[in-house]
Amino acid sequence: MSQTSLPSVRPSELGKPIYVGSVQHLYAVPGRDDLMVCETTNAGSVFDVGSIFDIPGSDVARATFRHALYTRMGKPETWAKVRDAIVADPDLPAYFKEDIQKGPLETMLREGAKTHHVGMLDGDTGVIATEGMPAKPSTYNVVRRFPIMKPVQKTFLGTYVYDYAMFHQAGTYVIPLESIVRFGITGGSSVLKKYGSLTDSGKRAYEAELGLTKPMQAWQFLEKPIFDLTSKHEPEDRNVSKQEALLMSGLEAEAFVSVIKMTILGAWAVRQLLDEIGLLLWDIKWEFAVDNGDFYYVDTIDTDSFRATSFLETDGKKLVLHYNKQAMRDYYKIVHADWFNGVNEAKKEANKSGVPFKQVLKEGQAAGKWPNTPVVDPEFLGLQAKKMDLIRQHVLGGGDTAKVKAALKDVGVAEVEFYRARGLFDEYAKANAVA
């Protein structure tokens, strides 16, 4: 899409949003059905409760990260670095190196990757910056708009199934799957929880499904990245096998494999970016759209979309420092354990009654059954804002990576001291110490 074909869209001219989410609002572009504006907010959401905290400055930081990363992904040199990193990795099996370089990577080395991202709006003029940052960075990114179809629920002998036939008949749509790439296994990951609930034979089968060569352990990096897939437009996201995902996608097998390779390659691009500032990427999620045989990276991408950490050795322990939403989850679990327990009790009641979880929680809180949602300590929110801002500085490029790396470590240490000063160090260590 050429710059000359793009409209100027002042934020004040956008009107009412067509969608209001917990952390993002979407707007139509006047006169352009093929475009959409995404507004990021300061709001944060955990445990499916909705927006319950605000991180100052995170709106611009998120929008900037998305704009800068997607812009990078459109350039062939980004993928040349990815290829070189894959070739140089001594732990990757030779067959994996050979296979991952075939198909999408060959195209991206010539043309860059296709994404739905168009650019960022200038906060004053409304001009869409497709290269570099606008004179006044904003919270508004412009993206290409793809049709979203949802599977139809069909009754089936007293239960139900989902009909994905429409995806096999369409040429342009958002693929109804979420793809998660894992370079390692974190302590609280869904795959580890599922693995722990299985029998020995079930574990072996699950290892084979994920492509593991040894038993799964927490905080373990893998010899090669693995991926798992979940449904996207059913009432609850659920893990699906590769075979089921292929049928749900509406794609032919070769095209489906291309999308999976793009998932892994996109994860590698982010991994390299974070590695430069001392952060370890454990996992990241992607969504894709298809347009008559061409595939596009779509949806949000920011620090809530992946798990990045570093390690800190202190008090005879090796602690995980979080640079993603896990830090907020830990805060509520440790500092406001009574509230967190109430949330879990409300979820159990909702599952039994069929009443929406948020409604059960709200009514229970009003009746004094569970604690009201607490206000987050401003000092803790300030630490999260600093993390986001430092990562934003790095992804923009041109800065001193050594200084950013050191500053990120300092913020992580300050977060540990936040807990220590409140007598909660042992609880933090229990949740984040690596055995």
Automatic annotation (TrEMBL):
Q: Any idea which UniProt keywords this protein has? A: ATP-binding, Ligase, Nucleotide-binding, Purine biosynthesis
Q: Name one Pfam family in it.
A: SAICAR_synt
All copies of domain SAICAR synthetase/ADE2 N-terminal, residue ranges: 172-341
Q: Which reaction does it catalyse?
A: 5-amino-1-(5-phospho-D-ribosyl)imidazole-4-carboxylate + L-aspartate + ATP = (2S)-2-[5-amino-1-(5-phospho-beta-D-ribosyl)imidazole-4-carboxamido]succinate + ADP + phosphate + 2 H(+)
Q: Which GO terms describe its cellular component?
A: cytoplasm
**Metabolic or biological pathway:** Purine metabolism; IMP biosynthesis via de novo pathway; 5-amino-1-(5-phospho-D-ribosyl)imidazole-4-carboxamide from 5-amino-1-(5-phospho-D-ribosyl)imidazole-4-carboxylate: step 1/2
One biological process term in Gene Ontology: 'de novo' IMP biosynthetic process
> Any keyword Transmembrane?
no
Q: Name one GO molecular function term.
A: phosphoribosylaminoimidazolesuccinocarboxamide synthase activity
**EC annotation?**
6.3.2.6
Return the similarity comment: Belongs to the SAICAR synthetase family.
What's the protein called, per UniProt?
A: phosphoribosylaminoimidazolesuccinocarboxamide synthase
Q: Which organism is it from?
A: Roseimicrobium gellanilyticum
Taxonomic lineage is: Bacteria, Pseudomonadati, Verrucomicrobiota, Verrucomicrobiia, Verrucomicrobiales
